[in-house]
Amino acid sequence: MIIARIKGTAVAAAKIENLEGSKLLVVELLEATQDGLQSTKKHMVAVDAVGAGADEVVVIVQGSSARLTPGYKTSPVDAVIVGIVDTVTAFGQAVAA
Predict the structure, then answer these.
(1) Nearest Cα residue to 8 out of 49, 59, 60, 43
(2) pLDDT in tens, 43-82
(3) Are 42 and 9 in contact (CB under 8 A)?
(4) What is the C-alpha separation between 76 and 36, in angstroms, rounded?
């Protein structure tokens, strides 16, 4: 699983039928450090399965795990947002989310 922050949206006027109605979000991958969650300066587009919003920290699954997400079993997806993070604990301490 991957932890990331929502940075924006990707709008695709034309897409395959299986993805019609799906929200595509641009996310920035994060890493947990002793100083908190830090940017990796890497981005990707993920399908939103949970109703995430701007600047929220989310959990993403990729590959075959993404294809197992309910509603996307027959869709060619590689990254799906499956959770919105409330808190993160790393290195024995709470890390700002």
Answers:
(1) 43
(2) 999 999 999 999 999 999 998 898 888 888 888 899 999 9
(3) no
(4) 34
The CATH superfamily assigned to 2-95 is EutN/Ccml (2.40.50.220)
Q: HSE, CB side, 13 Å, CA atoms: give it for residue 56.
A: 17
Tell me the pTM.
0.91
Nearest Cα to Cα of residue 58 among 22, 33, 30, 23: 30
Token duo for residue 97 = 């989310």
CA dist 53 → 36, 77, 87 (Å): 21, 20, 16
Q: Where are the domains of the chain?
A: 2-95
Enumerate residues 6+ apart whose C-beta is below 8 A from 65: 1
